[in-house]
Amino acid sequence: MAFFSGGRSDFFGLDIGTFGLRAVQLKGPGPIKTLDRYGEITLDSTVGTGYDVVDKQGFTQALQRLVKQTGITAKNVAVNIPSQRVFTTIIDLPKMLPAELDKTIHYQAGSYIPTPPDKSKVDFAVIGNSPQAGKVEVLITSAPNDFIESRLALVEAAGLNVIAMEPDNMALARAIVAADATLPQLVLDVGSVSADLIISFGGTPHLVRAIPTGMQNIARAASQNLGVDARQAQQYVLKFGLGKDKLEGRVYAAIIGVIDGLAGEIEKSIKFFAERYGNTKLDRIIVTGGASTLPELPLYIANKFGINVEIGNAWRNVNVPPPQQNQTMVVSSHFAVAVGLAGRME
Ligand SMILES: Nc1ncnc2c1ncn2[C@@H]1O[C@H](COP(=O)(O)OP(=O)(O)OP(=O)(O)O)[C@@H](O)[C@H]1O
Ligand SMILES: [Mg+2]
Fold first, then answer.
1. Closest ligand to residue 291's CA
2. Can you list the pairs that 88-91 forms with residues at least 24 positions away whose Cβ atoms lie under 8 Å?
3. What tens digit of pLDDT does each residue of 10-66 get?
């Protein structure tokens, strides 16, 4: 599922996030590739967000610095499309030949997507048989043309050639879910401004959602409720998290409203999934994203849903040479999207 298809192997994955840019290049043939080069650079908050870059020059300079610093020489790049700019839906369609399916979806696109089809890039993939007899499940993705074009221009301004653009959630699933996982797993990536939620089984996501919760609104709640500035609020949040016994439970009390909002969205997704797929129980919840490192968040989610929670490993489907293993684990929580993009097979 991507908007371009390059068929190149000399490329790297680039995650344009709100907190920073991350680049990953893999090497070698076959499904399990070896890490070649990787790196990250934080973005000044004046640059904007991952989905709305306002300081284009500052962005280009940061991207060029990142490429230089990692030693990546490939000019081809696979770039993420942030959740805030992608619409994803899963629909059931009668079984038909691929050419017919293509025609049907493009003809009916207006009824599936929220933006005008002639102003949007629309893509789809058949993900398997539908729970409804005789039908298939089709994942439809769309993004506004003007966003795609502005992102292309942004990356090309740094002297790079965009060969693919892929939604965060697809890249995330490729990196975080074990390649041979058959039981349904929920993946939650909590970033700076948004959280991506995926329920994946049989090698494909079957439920995809974006939730507008991330470190920025968690820290804002802490800042307002504790009366401290944004930077200090974030430090408190990252240090004490949901520990009820820390700082007399004041940080917990300040942020629990936002966390419960997120948990409510997770609950809705789990319910929707259970209703649609009958008896299939979730095997586990895997958390990742910079904000998922908040102390006691995994435990809180595990207790709330009675499901095992695992800390995601962005590199699980990649062979990491021993000298790089320690450092890659340190940054694992914010690399899943970049690793997933680097692992695209076309
Ligand atoms: N290099 C880093 N050093 C320290 N903390 C980091 C780093 N990268 C991310 N974080 C932490 O992770 C949080 C952001 O999460 P993440 O990096 O997953 O978001 P993002 O991908 O940049 O944002 P989004 O996907 O919402 O645009 C930051 O607020 C910070 O606490
Ligand atoms: Mg992100």
1. 1
2. 88/139, 88/140, 88/141, 88/167, 88/169, 88/208, 89/113, 89/139, 89/140, 90/127, 90/137, 90/138, 90/139, 90/140, 90/206, 90/207, 90/208, 91/137, 91/138, 91/140
3. 999 999 999 999 999 999 988 899 999 999 999 999 999 999 999 999 999 999 999
